[in-house]
């Protein structure tokens, strides 16, 4: 087998990764999916010319984003001979199917939009600090670091969900569904237990810690939900009680997830089993007439959380 | 004065640390011992974890607790997805004038980057900054030099000296003798969970021999047998 040249090095590497990650029939299915996707693009462009601009612009943006975010860029420039050419070949292979579709649809001018892809490797990549949503994190109090962690993991998805909920607040169910999804993300962020040093730095005793965490998160959750729920109520005033109950249910759900975390707290571990309990509470929170159940679950777990945390605040008494 | 009375730490049936009575004067104290001697267990116990109910740890006659003690643990874990600055925000200094934030100009921790991108040394330094920021009277440092580069070790030595000048009491565990000999007013030798010898600054002759005596004897026996088998 001939040694790969530097130009096609990355391409061969991707093929190798693909073959290791997916069995042969999977690769065939993937190829079929790509062909069908391209055919769909082609038909869309034939029906409406403007799609060609969106597809070309979107593809350029995607490759640019890929180039900016790829972690191996530094390594490639240091250790791969003719790294720029290897990158051009890789990006070229990525945009080639889209170019083909654009040519087939006669969108020559739009195809020119993709030309910058071939000079991307020579353009400087901005090395960001890797911190996501730093402007958003500044609004979150220091002791609610789970929220900062959530922003780091999900930004900008959470923000997009919230904006879509606000934009489509006139629809009957969608905004509530999206707020529910945000509440589940927040509840999910409470599964990771912080190290003992952070626990002890947050508050001076278990009682203060649980109150600080629960009320702080309830406040943030209310700030997130209120604009959407108010806007939704303006469009559907008769649903005010549905919106009010849903909002309360989600706030209680988030509070429950925090209390549940501290009821089972152990330093540095991830309480994945808590997800099942939170999911059950979420179902009850949206079922008519059963919204009180999460509240009862919350009140039941609260003393357990305090008792469990006492073991970490006053360990020598146990 | 730090007074330890009736302290006992056990893992199952095994007693790891046992100190019926021990006193430490204010200053910088080094605790040395081989792996398994009980150094980390002792610091944990002094901070309130894993000790028996009857144990009493007093600082200036009152219970030593989280209010007057800061602890840098040997293993530094951090909540995922937060930056160094966000971590430090949790550690509110009792007196803003004592804020250790300025020390980062020497330690050079990239506070605005996510902690997940830090090297081991950076994580150690961040944990140290957190403990220093609390500005407590007693500082427990468990293997603080681990993972640090030479420059950082030198900065840390300067920080510890300054803490001593400010009247703070520092307890450091380490298996690296060099920095401890120059830094500490007292070095306590911990063997099998008990303090067996106490060395004063400037009179540390015999420390290394005492530390390794048992190990040297065992090593000698095993190596000699191995050659013959």
Fold and architecture overview:
The complex is a heterodimer of chains A (318) and B (229). By secondary structure, chain A is mostly helical. In chain A, 71% of the residues lie in helices and 0% in strands. In chain A, helix 3 (50-69) packs antiparallel against helix 5, helix 10 runs antiparallel to helix 12 and helix 13 runs parallel beside helix 15 (292-313). The mean pLDDT of chain A is 89. With 229 residues, chain B is α/β, with parallel strands linked by helices. Chain B has a domain at 79-135. Chain B has seven helices and ten strands. In chain B, strands 6-7-8-3-9-10 form a six-stranded mixed sheet, with helices on both faces. In chain B, strands 2-1-4-5 form a four-stranded antiparallel sheet, with helices on one face. The chains are: A mainly alpha (318), B alpha/beta (229). The interface between A and B is medium-sized, with 33 and 35 residues.
Share of β-strand residues of chain B: 25-35%
Largest interface: A-B, 33 and 35 residues
Provide the number of structural domains of chain A. Answer: 2
Oligomerization state: heterodimer
- The portion of residues assigned to helices of chain A is over 70%
Shape of chain B: globular
- What's the end-to-end separation of chain B, in Å? 54 Å
Gyration radius of chain B, in Å:
19 Å
Please tally the helical runs of chain B, counting DSSP H or I stretches of 4 or more residues.
Answer: 7
In this structure, how is the largest beta sheet of chain A organized? none
Mean pLDDT score of chain A, rounded?
89
Q: Per the principal axes of the C-alpha atoms, what is the gross shape of chain A?
A: globular
What is the CA-CA span between the terminal residues of chain A?
A: 67 Å
Question: Structural class of the secondary elements of chain B?
Answer: alpha/beta
Structural class of chain A: mainly alpha
Strand order of the largest sheet of chain B: 6-7-8-3-9-10
Largest sheet data of chain B: 6 strands, mixed
Order of helices and strands of chain A: HHHHHHHHHHHHHHH
Rg of chain A (CA only): 26 Å
